[in-house]
Write a structure and sequence with these properties.
Length: about 160
């Protein structure tokens, strides 16, 4: 694997549930490897800029050992398309919004996060748990943990 720094941006709508969960999970999993990875998260909409992650995401993530304490919502910036190697959308709408906004020569960087899923090949979107109950947040964690493992495998191939 190349020792060159790679960078990953996780993106959902408001950057308070799915993308900060992916940020926290992937950071913890990558920490156990020798990957040289910069990690961040953002939202396609600026609804919650400066807010901490959703309390329910934090509650369920902390139970699994993930740290959200330094994460704050931000919106995707134009500079992100140039800066990040991987821009990973949580669902099809976020993917479409990113592709529409991204300069054409950089669109190859945008993928769906679950493209890296190992255990859930039929699932293409990380569902938004915001309006659901506890089981939705747990399922999101299951999907994100799995896709994080797949992404780590992908980065090791480089």
């Amino acid at each position: 694997m190349s020792r060159q720094l790679k960078s990953v941006l996780f993106v959902c709508l408001g950057n308070i549930c799915r993308s900060p969960t992916a940020h926290a999970v992937f950071r913890q999993k990558a920490k156990g490897t020798n990957l040289n990875v910069e990690i961040d998260s953002a939202g396609t909409a600026g609804y919650h800029v400066g807010a901490t992650p959703d309390k329910r995401s934090v509650k369920h993530g902390v139970k699994r050992g993930y740290d959200f304490s330094d994460l704050y919502a931000r919106a995707v910036s134009d500079e992100d398309f140039e800066h990040y190697d991987y821009i990973l959308a949580m669902d099809n709408q976020n993917y479409a919004d990113l592709v529409e906004r991204c300069p054409k020569p950089l669109r190859h960087k945008i993928k769906r996060f679950l493209d890296f899923s190992i255990k859930y090949p039929e699932q293409i979107e990380v569902p938004d748990p915001y309006y659901g109950g506890a089981s939705g947040f747990e399922y999101v964690l299951d999907l994100i943990e799995d896709a994080s493992d797949g992404l780590i495998d992908e980065l090791y191939k480089l």
